[in-house]
Amino acid sequence: xxxxxxxxxxxxxxxxxxxxxxxxxxxxxxxxxxxxxxxxxxxxxxxxxxxxxxxxxxxxxxxxxxxxxxxxxxxxxxxxxxxxxxxxxxxxxxxxxxxxxxxxxxxxxxxxxxxxxxxxxxxxxxxxxxxxxxxxxxxxxxxxxxx
Length: 147
Fold this sequence. Notes:
By secondary structure, this protein is an all-alpha fold. The chain has two domains: 1-78, lambda repressor-like DNA-binding domains (434 Repressor (Amino-terminal Domain), Orthogonal Bundle); 105-147. It has eight helices and no strands. Helix 2 packs across helix 4. The longest helix is centred in the C-terminal third of the chain and has 25 residues, at 120-144. The N and C termini lie far apart (49 Å).
């Protein structure tokens, strides 16, 4: 699956850059992580169609936009969620804290990159497995700790 659908990411980036009168060089200079001008140019042209989570975070910081908004655009998610199960919107500060933890750990970046490639049903299955593993770990901690 390609992350970018019908040029949504390139269109979004071009529109933000135009509205803020930004050049590709300025986007790269503003970025908090490593992203090259040629990579940004590829995204703008639509030729870089599967950016990593790290590159999307760098691009979002360079553009001065919310990384979650950019992730949604890159994933082709518009409007309401297309899943049967609805989830409450996360607190922005909590979401930012989680994102900082993800981008600071290569294993978490790998997990998120793979998760983004899954269809909705696959993501739900993975979420259930992760919750089950976490619950099992908590149970082991409770039984190992003398109380």
